[in-house]
Each structure stands twice: as structure tokens, then as C-alpha cells.
């Protein structure tokens, strides 16, 4: 009896082999082509309109890809890749997608030429390790005891492709000041820059150059009642996470009353419970009360009489930052172990003063002189919402970059310098290998050149000529000992020439480049591994479970 090998009956469609690879590569190319034109200092912006008609105008790769609702599973890998880069480094989201798509395209060509995907994968892995090693050994410049100049240059490089590039000097100073002012040392003695402590507030009106840095954490809400004082100093801050409204019975609690006068007592008691809570707060010494929920008018009266500032409906994340900066504890309930209600004064945070100021047309409560970490707020001014949103994204990227530079202390030249140097180096390395990986490494080297190419194309310059010149410089730098300084030659996209970008102040943190190469390679490998795709069809009618 012969066993007939037949396809198992799958309710769905199955594609395998070369079809799937080609399809995946095409999908990734499509995603990469969307963000390609937004790379670099002369990159263009994208306008995205979502299903309810909200408009986003942006240049940030991660934002563009997040707004596109990508269906294709392989292209989704690229979108996640951009978000990962955004989380890890903060900038370089566009480059990482472009490099990954290019690596895939090259790998697909190799597979068509009968080279097994496994050889390509191991070649890519080897190339990635060598590239990262080469960056760390040969290309980085230590920025010892960073002065402000390299930091400002890093911030300017990060902003060069965004809306605010015209005022990049002004914003770069703003960003560097902001990051330096949240410097702190953690328990292990490492110096950290928690940029989450930098609050970005957007206010309409005036021009972008009127943005400024405020010392203190700004809450985007006013006081709860007009009778409260405008400033309290020194401030003892209580952070609450429950309602200070008239206590209502829980749902499903039934009270049977024989005497109608008892009803009045129940109502009175309900009112008194909130009053007692507020008195406990004030007795503990709190004179600034922040809550994420509401405070009703009856409760506000007590705060006004005590001369305390109460702020209601504070955002959860703002609350966390305030609690961290002032040393307060977020209190979710007054109940203690014994079933009584108490408030421990140790839960209060301290700050030098809490004031309410008017910024543009909004009232803002500022918390200044916080106890543990210094919190700062960037107040952005701008003509319209789109502009403000885009400024915020640009500043977020720049803040991340400055933070990475400060923490890693190493920078590399920007403008395609690193990619060209790696390309020349890896090509040379490939010729020294006698194994199968040789072709994969040569393709990897070629793929890295996509960054300088795209940069030049976006700047409306002759890409072929510029990239050829650039590679010639880097070849010289790597072969002749006295020409080592050529290794930081990169593109000058305004004039369409080659210049030493390290001296021109176009620099990026080395960590950003290393991560771009690592993440792009990993993503390309993940997609390259796939050789079979089974798409299950949704069953109609039976799916009741």
C-alpha cells in the first residue's frame, strides 16, 4: 500500500518558496518608499489624514508608519522596527526602515541566484558584528567631559530635517539646557538624564522663537476655584487618586428607612465623610492638593477657607512625574489596616513654591523647586496645531539624541560618513573571506550606501557622482595611514559637495548608528527567514466560541 502524500486540507491559502519572499520584499519596499523622501536635512514632509479627517503633518519616520495602518504582515515588522528604534534611541527611525528594506531587497536577489537563505543570514550577522566593531574602534570620537558645543551640534543635526531647522540654533540651546537641568545620579552612582521629567506644553500664539524653558513642572490645568491663592510657598503636596466628592452609597446598597428624618441624617453623614477626609489632609499639613478625579463645589469650599490650592482632573502621567519629582506618594485610598481612615504626613511631597500663571490663554499651575529631581517644562509657542505637534516631535527626537550623547559620550560624523566608511571596509573584508558568506557581506556593504544615496537624491543632487567621490575619500582614509582624518568625510547637502562633517558640526551619537545597523539587520533576517505563508480563512457561522 503506497502512502500518498497529499496536502493537508487547510481552510486557507498557502504560498511557499520564492513567491512569499518576493511578496514580502515588495511590501517592505513599499513601506520604505513612503518614508524615503523624508530622510535628511532637505527631506520633505508627509501629510497624513486619518479616517475621521484629522490631519498630521510630519517628518518623523515612526509617526508616519504608526499612522499608516499597514495590513501586510511582513511590512508590519518594519513598522514595529521603527517604533523600537524610537523607544531605544529616539531618532533615526527613517534610516532604520530604509536600511532594512534595502538589505531585504539585496538578499532576495541573492536567493534568486541560488544562494541559500541560511548562508545569507550568517553573512549578514557577521557583517553586522564587524560593522559595529569597526564603528566602535575606528570611527567614534570621544567627547570628553562634554562641553555644550558638541551637544548643541548633535541636537542641530537631529533637528535639521524637521520643521524647525530654520531656528535650529535657538531650539538646540533650549534642548541642551533642558536635558542638562534634569541630570541626576541614581542609587548605583550612574548619571542619568530622565527626559520624561521634561514636560512639553504647547500654547497657541506668537512665533516659534518665543518658546522658552520654564524651571518647574507645569500642569496644564488651572486652580479648581477662583478663591484659592495664586501662590503657596513652601508647598506640601498631596497626590490623590480618588474622588473628593460627596460620598455616595455603592451601587446595590439598599437602605430601608422607617423614619423620614433618618434620611436627612444619612445625607448629612455622606457630606460629612468628605469633609472629614479633607480635614485629615489639611491637618497633615497639605496646602497643595492634586487629584486625578473630581472635587465638587462643597469640598472646594473647605480648601478655599484653608488657603490651599486644589487642582482636579490632573493627567495620570503628570501625576506620576510630580510625585517622583516632589517625593510624594500617590494615595489611592485613605483606608488603613484597621479599617479607619487616616492620612500619613509622610505621603506628602515638598516643593519651594506652587504658583498659577497665565501662559497664552491658559492657566497653568507650576511646581517650582522640587525636592528630588529638578523638573523643567518646555513651553512651545506656534501658529497652529500642526506646527506645534511637529515641533513637539522634533524636540522629542532632539532630547533623546542629546541624552544618548551624554550617556554614551561618543559621537560619529553624520551625513552618510559612517555608512560610506563601513561600506568600503566591509567590501574589503568580503574579499578576504573564502566562504559562502562573501557574497552576502558584499551585498550588505552595498546596501549601506542607500543612506548617502537617498540623502543626495532628496537634496536634488547627483547621487551617483557624490557617492562615488565619498567612497573614494573613505577608501583613501582606510588605505593610507596619513589620511586617517578623511574617515569623517560626509555629504554637504546644501552645496552638494563633500566636507569633513566632524568639523562642520554634523554629528550623531555613535549608539544611534550602531543600533540602526543592529535593528535593521535583525528585521531583515526575520523577514528573510520566512519561506512559507499560510493565510487562514475566517470560518463563517461556526465561530460562536
Structural description of this entry:
Its main location: cytoplasm. GO terms for molecular function: ATP binding; ATP hydrolysis activity; ATP-dependent protein folding chaperone; unfolded protein binding. InterPro entries: Chap_CCT_alpha, Chaperone_TCP-1, Chaperonin_TCP-1_CS, Cpn60/GroEL/TCP-1, GroEL-like_apical_dom_sf, GROEL-like_equatorial_sf, TCP-1-like_intermed_sf, TCP-1_chaperonin. The chain is an alpha+beta fold and 545 residues long. The protein has 2 domains: 12-142 and 412-536, GroEL-like equatorial domain (GROEL, domain 1); 216-372, GroEL (3-Layer(bba) Sandwich), CATH 3.50.7.10. Helix content is 47%, strand content 18%. The strands form 7 sheets. Strands 9, 10, 11, 12, 13, 14, 15 and 16 form an 8-stranded mixed beta sheet that branches. It has a 3-stranded antiparallel beta sheet with strand order 4-18-21. Strands 7-17-8 form a 3-stranded mixed beta sheet. It is elongated, with a radius of gyration of 30 Å.
Amino acid at each position: 500500500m503506497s502512502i500518498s502524500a497529499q496536502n493537508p486540507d487547510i481552510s486557507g491559502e498557502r504560498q511557499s518558496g520564492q513567491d512569499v519572499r518576493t511578496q514580502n520584499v515588495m511590501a517592505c519596499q513599499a513601506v520604505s518608499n513612503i518614508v524615503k523622501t523624508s530622510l535628511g536635512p532637505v527631506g520633505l514632509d508627509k501629510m497624513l489624514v486619518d479616517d475621521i479627517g484629522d490631519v498630521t503633518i510630519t517628518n518623523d519616520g515612526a509617526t508616519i508608519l504608526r499612522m499608516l495602518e499597514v495590513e501586510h504582515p511582513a511590512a508590519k515588522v518594519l513598522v514595529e522596527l521603527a517604533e523600537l528604534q524610537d523607544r531605544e534611541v529616539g531618532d533615526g527611525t527613517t534610516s532604520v526602515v530604509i536600511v532594512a528594506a534595502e538589505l531585504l531587497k539585496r538578499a532576495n536577489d541573492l536567493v534568486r541566484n541560488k544562494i541559500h537563505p541560511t548562508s545569507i543570514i550568517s553573512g549578514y550577522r557577521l557583517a553586522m558584528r564587524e560593522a559595529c566593531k569597526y564603528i566602535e574602534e575606528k570611527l567614534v570620537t570621544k567627547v570628553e567631559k562634554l562641553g555644550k558645543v558638541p551637544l548643541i551640534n548633535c541636537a542641530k543635526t537631529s533637528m535639521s530635517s524637521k520643521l524647525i531647522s530654520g531656528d535650529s540654533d535657538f531650539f538646540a540651546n533650549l534642548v541642551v539646557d533642558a536635558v542638562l537641568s534634569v541630570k541626576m545620579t541614581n542609587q548605583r552612582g550612574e548619571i542619568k538624564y530622565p527626559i520624561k521629567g521634561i514636560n512639553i506644553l504647547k500654547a497657541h500664539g506668537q512665533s516659534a522663537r518665543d518658546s522658552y524653558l520654564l524651571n518647574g513642572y507645569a500642569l496644564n490645568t488651572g486652580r479648581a476655584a477662583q478663591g484659592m491663592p495664586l501662590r503657596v510657598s513652601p508647598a506640601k503636596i498631596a497626590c490623590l487618586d480618588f474622588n473628593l466628592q460627596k460620598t455616595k452609597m455603592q451601587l446595590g446598597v439598599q437602605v430601608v428607612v422607617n423614619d423620614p428624618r433618618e434620611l436627612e441624617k444619612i445625607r448629612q453623614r455622606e457630606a460629612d465623610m468628605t469633609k472629614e477626609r479633607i480635614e485629615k489632609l489639611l491637618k497633615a499639613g497639605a496646602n497643595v492638593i492634586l487629584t486625578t478625579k473630581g472635587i465638587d463645589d462643597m469640598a472646594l469650599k473647605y480648601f478655599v477657607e484653608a488657603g490651599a490650592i486644589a487642582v482636579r482632573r490632573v493627567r495620570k502621567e503628570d501625576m506620576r512625574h510630580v510625585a517622583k519629582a516632589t517625593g510624594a506618594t500617590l494615595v489611592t485610598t485613605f483606608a488603613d489596616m484597621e479599617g479607619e481612615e487616616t492620612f500619613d504626613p509622610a505621603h506628602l511631597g515638598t516643593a519651594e513654591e506652587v504658583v498659577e500663571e497665565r501662559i497664552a490663554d491658559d492657566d497653568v499651575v507650576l511646581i517650582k523647586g522640587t525636592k528630588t529631581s529638578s523638573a523643567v517644562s518646555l513651553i512651545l509657542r506656534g501658529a497652529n496645531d500642526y506646527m506645534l505637534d511637529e515641533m513637539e516631535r522634533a524636540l522629542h527626537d532632539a532630547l533623546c539624541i542629546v541624552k544618548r550623547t551624554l550617556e554614551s559620550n561618543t559621537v560619529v560624523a553624520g551625513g552618510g560618513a559612517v555608512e560610506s566608511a563601513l561600506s568600503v571596509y566591509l567590501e574589503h573584508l568580503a574579499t578576504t573571506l573564502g566562504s559562502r558568506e562573501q557574497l552576502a557581506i558584499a551585498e550588505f556593504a552595498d546596501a549601506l550606501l542607500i543612506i548617502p544615496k537617498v540623502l543626495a537624491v532628496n537634496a536634488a543632487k547627483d547621487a551617483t557622482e557624490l557617492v562615488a567621490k565619498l567612497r573614494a575619500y573613505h577608501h583613501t582614509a582606510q588605505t593610507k595611514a596619513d589620511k586617517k582624518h578623511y574617515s569623517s568625510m560626509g555629504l554637504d547637502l546644501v552645496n552638494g559637495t563633500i566636507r569633513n562633517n566632524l568639523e562642520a558640526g554634523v554629528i550623531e551619537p555613535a549608539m544611534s548608528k550602531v543600533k540602526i545597523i543592529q535593528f535593521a539587520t535583525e528585521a531583515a533576517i526575520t523577514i528573510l527567514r520566512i519561506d512559507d505563508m499560510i493565510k487562514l480563512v475566517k470560518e463563517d457561522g461556526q465561530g460562536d466560541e
